[in-house]
Each structure stands twice: as structure tokens, then as C-alpha cells.
Design a protein that fits this description.
125 residues; mainly alpha; 4 helices
Length: 125
């Protein structure tokens, strides 16, 4: 039983950290939205500087390209890990398994890079 609980606890901790982060950012966005709504109800003029001061951030330019590049690097690292592990073991299935796992971040990274390139082209027009 303990053999299962330790790895399960590790993965559960990662899920808990992500869930806490998502819940915290959602509550911050709700608070900012409530503040903006109250300011609109009271008839105050909202300038871009005021909204930035509340903590609303613009989407960074090139964010898709950066995320896509990171995911492609993760995919390449998984493939290299597959080569390294298959070199130590005579079992060749390890390389094909690691390549299949690397396909997920790799394809998502390619799509994000394409989104970034197309959005750059659209911004220039």
C-alpha cells in the first residue's frame, strides 16, 4: 500500500499546486472585475493607466512563439531521454514509447508557433 501512496502523493501535490494557482488567479480577476464594475456604476472614467494599476496585464507579444518553443524543447528532451535510456537497455521499445510521449508537447508546440507566426503576420497588415 505504501508503494502506491508515495508516487500518488507526488502527483497529487503537483495537481494541488496547479489548482491553488488557478483558483488564486481566478479570484484576483474577479476582484478586479468587481472594482471596474463598481467604478463604471459610480460614473468614473476609466483610463488605460487606471486599469493597468489594478493589475490587468496585456498579453505579451510573442507569447505563443515562446510557449511553442518551450514545448518543442520539452519534446526534444523526451526524445533524447529515450535515446539515452534505450542505449543502456537492450529493449528498443523504450525509444518508441518516449517518442510517442514527446509527440504530445511537440505537436502542441508546433501549433503554438504557427499561431504566433500567423498573428504576427496579421498584426503587420
Amino acid at each position: 500500500m505504501e508503494d502506491i501512496l508515495v508516487p500518488l502523493g507526488l502527483f497529487g501535490m503537483v495537481v494541488a499546486i496547479v489548482a491553488i494557482n488557478v483558483a488564486g488567479s481566478a479570484s484576483r480577476r474577479k476582484a478586479v472585475l468587481a472594482t471596474v464594475q463598481e467604478a463604471i456604476r459610480s460614473g468614473q472614467e476609466l483610463k488605460p493607466e487606471t486599469i493597468k494599476a489594478l493589475g490587468v496585464q496585456e498579453k505579451p507579444k510573442g507569447g505563443d512563439l515562446k510557449s511553442g518553443s518551450i514545448l518543442l524543447a520539452v519534446a526534444a528532451a523526451l526524445i533524447v531521454l529515450g535515446f539515452a535510456v534505450s542505449g543502456m537497455e537492450p529493449d528498443e521499445d523504450i525509444l518508441s514509447i518516449m517518442t510517442a510521449i514527446a509527440a504530445f508537447p511537440g505537436f502542441i508546440g508546433i501549433v503554438l508557433i504557427l499561431f504566433g507566426l500567423f498573428s504576427k503576420k496579421k498584426d503587420q497588415d
